[in-house]
Automatic annotation (TrEMBL):
Known pathway: Metabolic intermediate biosynthesis; chorismate biosynthesis; chorismate from D-erythrose 4-phosphate and phosphoenolpyruvate: step 1/7
Protein name (Swiss-Prot/TrEMBL): Phospho-2-dehydro-3-deoxyheptonate aldolase
One Pfam family cited in the UniProt record for this chain: DAHP_synth_2
Lineage, broadest ranks: Bacteria, Bacillati, Actinomycetota, Actinomycetes, Kitasatosporales
Residues that bind phosphoenolpyruvate: R113, E270, R271, K293, R324
Catalytic activity as recorded in UniProt: D-erythrose 4-phosphate + phosphoenolpyruvate + H2O = 7-phospho-2-dehydro-3-deoxy-D-arabino-heptonate + phosphate
Cofactor needs: Mn(2+); Co(2+); Cd(2+)
Alphabetical UniProt keywords: Amino-acid biosynthesis, Aromatic amino acid biosynthesis, Cadmium, Cobalt, Manganese, Transferase
Amino acid sequence: MTVNADSSTSIATSWRDLPAAQQPDYPDLEALRAVTTDLATYPPLVFAGECDQLRAQVGAVARGEAFLLQGGDCAEAFDQVSADQIRAKLKTLLQMSAVLTYAAAVPVVKVGRIAGQYSKPRSKPTETRDGVTLPSYRGDSVNGPEFTAEARVPDPERLRRMYHASASTLNLVRGFTTGGYADLRQVHAWNQDFVRTSASGQRYEALAREIDNALNFMKACGADPAEFHSVEFYASHEALLLDYEAALTRVDSRSGALYDVSGHMVWIGERTRQLDGAHIAFAANIRNPIGVKLGPTTSPDEALALIDRLDPEREPGRLTFITRMGADKIRDRLPALVERVTASGAQVAWVCDPMHGNTFEAASGHKTRRFDDVLDEVKGFFEVHKGLGTHPGGIHVELTGDDVTECVGGGDEIFVHDLHQRYETACDPRLNRSQSLDLAFLVAEMYRG
Ligand code: PEP
Ligand code: CO
């Protein structure tokens, strides 16, 4: 991997002249330039070879041979970069993955919304409280959540903090996933603090016992493969702030190709996927596996045009379509997209985001989601793919390892009047640990279906 001083200039010509939606309005462009110049000299957070490895694994998802589990916070926050919180998130994802691997008997590709998910696209540029209007909070990478004029001014120094927060998070993730903690023999340990208090924890415990038996049996037979002792875990985030992503885009010395080394996989959001916009032009230039969110207004022609731009070689694993239609629309909107894409010969990975089409405001003013709607969208996703003979490739969820009360429903039911108890999200409502595990069990049943 070479840090090529020219890389940001050469990329610049391809997207800087195009309209870029959702970018911060920095008052001091000199300060921005100073930060991005520094960022361009910082070490890569991930390596090109790791991105290639993930692309190959997403290729298996596209071919129907593996399942993608992508999850984490809606928005990470600088003050939540702590060992406890990162471990809790990882534990939840590892538990979900164990459930899916064992109960659905499918290899699971594990990708966190983690170590870089600090930026948020917003539907409204301003927020009004008690007659006072201020710019919206756009994530810790841009401005502060406090409702004051000072906090809401975009500060480019926050891009530097995003880099350092991502680096320390990723360092811990790498430690946890390769240092023995993710060893399959730890399936019980991930559940320890959880098992007595929740129905999903108990259900998980029963499954963990079965996994243990299977491992003991294999060991007795003389099989103890290295795959059981560590886990491949990848980092992803929305490539929203192009100044940051471009500063972290480097030329790979092996291949001469460009990689965005801020994360293994990046995705383009529903609000920034304009075909003639800067985000798609930026994504077209990098070799990372790319995701694109597709909302209910996406036409089949748009989906095909996105494939032409982002995956002209039709390479399985290069492009993942993350559909987020809403439970009431998925059965209606998804079939035409899948049919046309399949007929075109492209092999994309289809992943279901059952969160972003199902958000509503509770009477208390909390933004929330119903667990039943989340589940119903995933069900619709499976129905459509089964009906068309295509592969329901994965799920993309917003979750946390903490016992928050942000989404309503689930096995340990959370009611609308509970929402205030632990409502801690920096942006959208997340599934808590118990809801996440419930979802994994239900998805495993659908997959086996
Ligand atoms: C998100 O993933 O947090 C998000 C904003 O999603 P979307 O672009 O699909 O609205
Ligand atoms: Co979100």
